[in-house]
Structures are given as structure tokens and as C-alpha cells.
Write a structure and sequence with these properties.
Layout: H1 2-22, H2 30-42, E1 78-88, H3 91-96, H4 99-102, E2 111-122, E3 136-139, E4 145-148, E5 175-184, E6 192-195, H5 202-207, E7 210-212
Antiparallel strand pairs: 1-2, 2-5, 3-4, 3-6, 4-5, 6-7
Length: about 220
């Protein structure tokens, strides 16, 4: 009976040892190996910094984007897009256009009149007068918004955007230049005028077509 107790005790001890090894109880089991794998992935344990996305080469004003775009708000048609010029405005134009009256946060900011030309290359737009400039954004070197269109952006002032024409439709080969006002954020310095139908983040805009910011 005493002999059987020793055997049972030995069997129980062996089983317990196997269980502890499987659970990594002695620090040399599978759990330890998994921990080492995680450490190797993270290096010092700190999260690896995200890779910074650099700007694609800047287009010059008057140079067309290398690809065609089908804007969401045109309901069809593929366009060649060309930023043609940016004209820096004045505080008088801000006052005459009643922009500050509509939004007091714009007090003292700089207006810019941005001209973009659209050439219909393919298809048939379903909208005759789409606001194609809604896809243009003014960004600083980091990709942050440096100027934006005000809520009231269709007012016209002397020396600003000309009164836009009203069209009945588009024909392939037709070209139109649209002008929109963008009001600058004094804490941001414009670096690029970007144009995209799909970009949602700064990195998206950096990878797409953009023009070096040059204001007249």
C-alpha cells in the first residue's frame, strides 16, 4: 500500500510538471517564446513611428494634372484639370464682399481668388453648372488646411472673381475656367493647391495632383 502511494504520488507530480511547463510557469515555456516574438516586432517596446508621406512633385500653375477626373458633383464626364492662377485679395474686398458679416471668425484674414480650368475630355456630365472647384483645397506644407472657402463664397467684388456664366450643358472639348474665393488662416502658410475627387486625409492629398502655391 505504501508502494502504491509512491507510484501515485510520482504520477501526480509528473502530470503537474507537464501542466506547469505548458503554461510557461517556469518562464521557459511557450508563453515566453510568444513574448520574445512580440518584443522582436516592437524593438524597444515603443510603437514604431508612422512613415511620413512626402508630397508628390508639384505642378506649376498652368500645368494640367496628369490624370483625368470624374467629379462626383458633375454626374458624369471626365475632365482635365488645370490650376491657372491665384490672386491675393485685400481687406477692402473682404469688407465689400460682406464675408466678415457672414462669419466673424474671418476678421483680418487674407482672401485669395483661385482660378481652375476644366476641359471635358470624355463622357457627358448630367449637371450643366457643377461647382467643380469644391474639389480644390489649399494646404500648408504639412497637408493641413491653410485656407478654405467661406460659407458664403459666391459674392462678387471688384477685382475678385468675375461673375460666372450660366451654361445649358457640356460638350466634349469644351473648356471653362471657374473662380472661387478661399480665405486664408493666418497661422498657416499656403504651400499647395490640391485637387481630388477621393482624398480624405492629408496623406491622400500629398499623393495626388497639387500645384505649387504662387499668388499674384
Amino acid at each position: 500500500m505504501h508502494h502504491r502511494s509512491k507510484v501515485l504520488y510520482g504520477m501526480l507530480a509528473s502530470a503537474l510538471g507537464i501542466a506547469l511547463t505548458a503554461c510557461g510557469g517556469d518562464g521557459g515555456g511557450e508563453e515566453s517564446g510568444a513574448s520574445e516574438g512580440r518584443t522582436a516586432k516592437s524593438g524597444s517596446g515603443k510603437a514604431s513611428p508612422a512613415t511620413r508621406v512626402e508630397w508628390s512633385p508639384a505642378l506649376a500653375m498652368g500645368q494640367s494634372a496628369p490624370e483625368l477626373y470624374e467629379p462626383r458633383n458633375s454626374a458624369g464626364g471626365k475632365f482635365q484639370v488645370t490650376a491657372t492662377k491665384v490672386v491675393k485679395g485685400t481687406q477692402k474686398q473682404m469688407k465689400d464682399g460682406h464675408y466678415v458679416e457672414a462669419d466673424r471668425t474671418l476678421e483680418g484674414r487674407t482672401p485669395y481668388f483661385v482660378y481652375v480650368t476644366y476641359l471635358l475630355k470624355e463622357g457627358k456630365p448630367g449637371v450643366a453648372n457643377p461647382d467643380l472647384n469644391a474639389h480644390a483645397v489649399v494646404l500648408d506644407e504639412n497637408g493641413d488646411m491653410a485656407a478654405k472657402r467661406p460659407v458664403v463664397h459666391s459674392g462678387y467684388v471688384e477685382g475678385g472673381c468675375p461673375v460666372g456664366d450660366i451654361y445649358m450643358g457640356w460638350d466634349v472639348g469644351e473648356k471653362r475656367t471657374l473662380c472661387s474665393i478661399y480665405i486664408g488662416d493666418p497661422s498657416k502658410r499656403p504651400a499647395r493647391l490640391a485637387w481630388s475627387t477621393a482624398a480624405e486625409t492629408a496623406d491622400d492629398y500629398k499623393k495626388g495632383a497639387s500645384w505649387a502655391w504662387t499668388a499674384q
